[in-house]
Amino acid sequence: MNLWSWLWPGKKPLLSLEQQQRLLQLPPSPGLSEHSLRQQRWVVVDLETSGLNLKRDQVLSIGAMVIEDGAIDLGQAFERTLLRTHMPLNPSVLLHGLGPSAIAAGCEPVDALLDFMEFVGDSPLLAFHSPFDQHMLGRALKASLDYRLQHPFMDVAALAPMLCPQTHLREAGLDAWVKHFNLQVEERHNASADALATAELALILFSRARAQHIDSPQALQQRLNQWQRRKQQHSF
To answer: CDD domains per the record (predicted)?
Structure first.
């Protein structure tokens, strides 16, 4: 951060020297690799937000799990609730349960987001309906850290119907896919629990991908891009 940031905190976030150092040490993302899906470390992320408005609503909590060596590593888990002041009550509280007291006890957004990006490292991210999470996380990082998110995001909600074309769940939500594969999910609409459910679904989908001779993150994204282009063409 430069002197301009200190003189004009309204234009860019005001960070302490320690926070600036942490920000500078964040590794760049190398993009999706040609290594096998099993070799790739993935971070599966889920956000709870104050609503679904991409411009106005805020990230309230971040939950994440890690897939590494072809399995979910329960020893690598992340969860933070972000402190948000002057946040009005929203009907979404009925889903995620993050009321005023939980938000008031949260971490400062700058530290929570730095913690998360240090946890991510240079790994690609997975999410269910990832465009929403990618946009909201990118907005939060820009507002709090003046950081541009460049890590690849892969959408599990799009991978599922592509890799399982016989299921007829093309526009289904996470609950429908969890039920379809008989996954044991004890809790939902909690960032960490949803990230775990998404990670379990992703492992099944990676197995389906390998059976279809798709065995690298880069090849999987390329196949997904092709599938989505064909889907768009058929919709006209």
So the answer is: DEDDh (cd06127)
Range of the domain at 197: 34-235
> Is residue 75 included in any domain, yes or no?
yes
Query: Model-level pTM?
Result: 0.89
Within-domain flag for 15:
no
**The total number of structural domains that make up the chain:** 1
Query: Would residue 129 count as lying in a domain?
Result: yes
- Hey, what are 139's tokens? 């907005």
User: How many CB atoms neighbour CB 146 within 10 A?
Assistant: 14
What is the residue-level pLDDT of the chain in tens, covering all 236 positions?
344 444 444 457 889 999 999 999 999 999 999 999 999 999 999 999 988 899 999 999 999 999 999 999 999 999 999 998 766 555 555 455 566 777 877 899 999 999 999 999 999 999 999 999 999 999 999 999 999 999 999 999 999 999 999 988 877 899 999 999 999 877 666 889 999 999 999 999 999 999 999 999 999 999 999 999 998 887 66
Assigned domain for 3 exists:
no
Question: How many angstroms separate the CA atoms of 3 and 180, rounded?
Answer: 55
CB distance 13 to 143 below 8 Å? yes
Alpha helices (runs of H) in 42-186, residue ranges in sequence order:
93-96, 100-104, 109-120, 130-145, 156-163, 174-180
CATH of the domain at 180: 3.30.420.10
Amino acid at 106: G
Amino acid letter, residue 26? L
Return left, alpha or beta for 194; rule: phi > 0 is left, psi -120 to 50 is alpha, else beta: alpha
